[in-house]
Structures are given as structure tokens and as C-alpha cells.
């Protein structure tokens, strides 16, 4: 009994001794963003952004360099025949062990996306370091330029990029940046294709090459912005979709968020309507060898503003006015979905997940009738789009702030 107690105490002492795998945090450097490109010779280019804790501490989190001339981040790149080899090729340039455990974003260039992201997904998914919550996106422009682009809001570009992608996910009706697990499952999903948000790089503005004047002048344009989405077929990008088409895809894919849509006002001018709640249901059917879908969307919103300053005003308590606006909002949503579907047919990409709906809801039909030739059948698919809308009160206004003519 005493021997057993002695062994137990010894084991507890070993477990309480601290670090067990001899990997000291001070011996590691933490990647904040990981990007991949491909060169003209077919070699993979890995670009990794690291945080500079010393500079961040000295500058108090400022986006500008500290008094010592250090920036809060640095970005290195290297090449390799595989993504893993490209990342490993960076290690000789870094005096500490590179770890991906704190990486916020995974970015791929448009050129690599069109070549195929399968090897990138495979490498990241196999890594025990990469977190499943890492966000991903496609870069329209120079990847290294994006990873060097500073924002006034965050000292490290990786943080700005992650916040922007999170905002798209939380507040916009559009395809959002999937986490790693979602991205992997989307590539492998039966009857559906991947869709990723696009970050457009605006590049350096005039006067940004350096110097005191450039440092004191505020930027007149954001260095990068969210710009639509990229449609894939299997692991290859097949084309870009604009914001209207991306919003239509968001409605079909049941993406929570909000969107501002303008419609013609019954009293003249335009109305801006903020859609703050939307839900969709996709119901496939198979009849006479043809596949069709019922797309049922319900959306609610409120009036944000109007351009007509006549005698009439946007009064949703007027039943006739409200019915007109609801009908026009429903038509605008329907047109967004039709635009997304048309782009899906043009690219031959099922980023609306129509095939997956057949696979899940009509498994026998998928297995025996359409599964092995889905992309051919997709071109003949029809959609019946039904949209129901609700309209809330027009903000805090009960009457116009100005009368006709400005009187």
C-alpha cells in the first residue's frame, strides 16, 4: 500500500513539473496568416506573416512602426515542389520554430485557385497545428501586397483580414469565409461545389512609398476589400461572381445576415430596404426524368431611406403602399437568386448545392438516375422561386424631414 502511494505521489510530481514536451513558447514564432501562390514553373509559393511582439509592445499596438523602426509584423515567402516543402523552406530564414497554431487566415491566390487548391487543403487538413476555425478566402491581386497592407484599425494585416471575413460571415447575406472543417467538407461533399469569399487588393496608392509626408497623410482608399466570391468545381476555381450574384447565393444557402436592397418606390424615386432576416428552404423533385427545385425564401426588412421628396411618403401603415413595396422587394430577391443560378450554369459549378439537396432528400434518384451525370443534368434544371416578404415601420420617421421644394 505504501509502495502504491509512493508511486502515485511520484507520478503527480512528474505531471506537475510543467512543460512535458520540451517545446518552449519562447523558442517558437507564431504565424498569423498563411498564404499560397504558384509560380510560372509550377512551384508552390508559401507566404507566412508573423507577429512581432517586441514592436507591438514598444508601439502600444500602433499600426505604424515603433520608435525603434520595427514594424508589428513581417512576411516571408519561399518556394517548394509541394505546399509542405514550401513552408519548410521558410524555416532556415527564421531563428525560431515556425508554428501554425495561431494562424487566423488561410489565403490562396486566384492563379493557384484556378490551378487547384486540393494540395493546399490536404496539407492544412493533415497538420495537427492548424486550427479548425481558421478562415479562408481567395485573393484577387497580389498576395504579398495583401499581406503587407496595413490598416488603421489593426497593427497586423492578418487581424484586419480576419475581422473583415468575420463581418461578412456575421452581417452579410453572402457566401462567407468557411472554417477549415467546412472547406474540407465542401470539397468532398457529394453534389455540391465550394464557394469562397474574394478579397480584392487595391494596391499601393500614390505617395505611399515612404517619407514623412506619406506617413502623415491618411489613406484615401482601403488597401483591400471584400468583393463577391469565387466559384469552384471540385478543387478548381472556375470564375468570379459579383456582389449581386453572391447575395443571391447567400439567400439560397441560407446564410444569416443582412443586406441593403434598393427598389422603385410606388410614389417615385427609390427606396432603400434593409433586409435583416432571411430563411430559405430548398425542395427537389424528380418527374419524367427531369429535376426541378422549389426555392422558398422568407425575408423581413425595414425602410432605411427614400429619394422621393414629394407630397407622399413611405408609409408602411398604408396597406396598398406596403403591398407594392413587399412585391418589389420579393422581385429583387428573386432576381438575385436567378442571377446566381445563371452564373452557376455558365460556370458549370454547383455552388448553390442543388445536387447535394437531391443526394440528401432523394437518395434513390441520385443513385440510380442523376448522380453519375449531375453536371449535364444541372444545365436542364429549373427553379420555382417563391419569396415572401415582411416590412416593418420606416425607422423613427412618421413624416418627411423636408416638404416638397425644400419649404
Are there runs of 5+ residues with pLDDT below 50, and where? 63-68, 205-216
Task: Please tell me how large the radius of gyration is.
Answer: 26 Å
Largest sheet: 9 strands, mixed
Portion of residues within helices: 25-40%
- Topology pattern, helix = H, strand = E: HEEHEHEEHHEHHHEHEEHEEEHHHHE
Cα distance spanning the termini:
97 Å
The proportion of residues in beta strands is 25-35%
Number of domains: 2
Query: Which of globular, elongated, flat, extended, rod-shaped describes the shape?
Result: globular
Structure annotation, total helices: 14
Structural class: alpha/beta
> Could you tell me the number of beta strands?
13
The pLDDT mean sits at 82
Describe this structure in words.
With 407 residues, this protein is of the alpha/beta class. It has helices at 2-15, 53-59, 83-88, 110-115, 118-126, 143-147, 157-171, 180-188, 212-216, 243-252, 319-347, 354-361, 363-370, 374-378, and strands spanning 28-38, 44-51, 73-80, 97-99, 105-109, 135-140, 195-201, 224-233, 236-241, 259-264, 270-287, 290-306, 382-391. The chain folds into 2 domains: 25-241, no CATH class; 251-397, GMP Synthetase, Chain A, domain 3 (2-Layer Sandwich). It is built from 14 helices and 13 strands. The strands form 2 sheets. Strands 1, 2, 3, 4, 5, 6, 7, 8 and 9 form a 9-stranded mixed β-sheet that branches. A 4-stranded mixed β-sheet has the order 10-11-12-13, with helices on both faces. Helix 5 (118-126) packs across helix 8 (180-188), helix 10 packs across helix 11 (319-347) and helix 12 crosses helix 13 (363-370). The relative contact order is 0.10.
Amino acid at each position: 500500500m505504501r509502495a502504491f502511494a509512493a508511486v502515485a505521489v511520484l507520478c503527480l510530481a512528474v505531471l506537475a513539473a510543467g512543460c512535458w514536451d520540451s517545446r518552449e513558447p519562447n523558442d517558437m514564432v507564431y504565424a498569423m496568416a498563411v498564404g499560397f501562390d504558384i509560380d510560372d514553373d509550377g512551384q508552390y509559393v508559401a507566404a507566412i506573416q508573423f507577429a512581432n511582439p517586441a514592436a507591438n509592445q514598444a508601439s502600444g499596438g500602433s499600426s505604424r512602426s515603433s520608435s525603434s523602426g520595427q514594424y508589428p509584423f513581417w512576411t516571408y515567402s519561399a518556394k517548394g515542389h509541394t505546399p509542405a516543402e514550401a513552408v519548410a523552406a521558410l524555416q532556415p530564414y527564421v531563428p525560431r520554430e515556425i508554428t501554425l497554431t495561431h494562424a487566423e487566415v488561410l489565403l490562396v491566390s486566384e492563379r493557384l485557385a484556378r490551378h487547384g487548391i486540393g494540395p493546399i487543403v490536404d496539407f492544412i487538413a493533415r497538420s495537427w497545428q492548424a486550427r479548425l476555425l481558421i478562415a479562408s478566402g481567395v485573393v484577387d491581386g497580389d498576395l504579398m501586397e495583401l499581406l503587407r497592407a496595413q490598416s488603421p484599425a489593426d497593427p497586423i494585416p492578418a487581424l484586419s483580414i480576419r475581422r473583415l471575413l468575420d463581418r461578412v460571415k456575421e452581417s452579410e447575406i453572402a457566401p462567407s469565409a468557411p472554417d477549415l472543417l467546412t472547406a474540407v467538407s465542401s470539397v468532398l461533399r457529394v453534389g455540391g461545389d465550394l464557394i469562397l469569399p474574394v478579397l480584392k487588393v487595391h494596391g499601393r496608392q500614390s505617395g505611399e512609398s515612404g517619407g514623412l509626408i506619406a506617413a502623415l497623410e491618411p489613406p484615401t482608399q482601403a488597401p483591400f476589400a471584400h468583393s463577391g466570391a469565387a466559384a469552384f468545381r471540385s478543387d478548381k476555381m472556375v470564375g468570379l461572381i459579383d456582389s449581386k450574384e453572391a447575395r443571391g447565393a447567400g439567400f439560397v444557402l441560407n446564410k444569416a445576415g443582412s443586406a441593403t436592397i434598393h427598389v422603385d418606390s410606388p410614389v417615385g424615386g427609390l427606396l432603400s430596404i434593409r433586409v435583416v432576416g432571411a430563411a430559405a428552404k430548398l425542395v427537389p423533385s424528380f418527374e419524367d426524368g427531369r429535376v426541378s427545385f422549389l426555392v422558398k425564401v422568407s425575408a423581413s426588412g425595414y425602410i432605411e431611406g427614400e429619394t422621393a421628396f414629394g407630397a407622399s411618403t413611405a408609409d408602411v401603415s398604408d396597406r396598398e403602399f406596403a403591398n407594392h413595396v413587399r412585391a418589389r422587394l420579393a422581385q429583387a430577391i428573386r432576381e438575385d437568386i436567378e442571377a446566381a443560378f445563371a452564373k452557376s450554369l455558365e460556370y458549370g459549378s454547383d455552388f448553390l448545392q442543388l445536387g447535394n439537396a437531391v443526394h440528401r432528400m432523394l437518395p434513390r434518384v441520385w443513385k440510380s438516375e442523376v448522380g453519375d451525370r449531375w453536371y449535364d443534368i444541372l444545365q436542364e434544371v429549373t427553379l420555382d422561386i417563391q419569396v415572401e416578404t415582411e416590412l416593418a415601420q420606416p425607422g423613427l420617421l412618421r413624416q418627411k424631414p423636408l416638404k416638397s421644394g425644400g419649404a
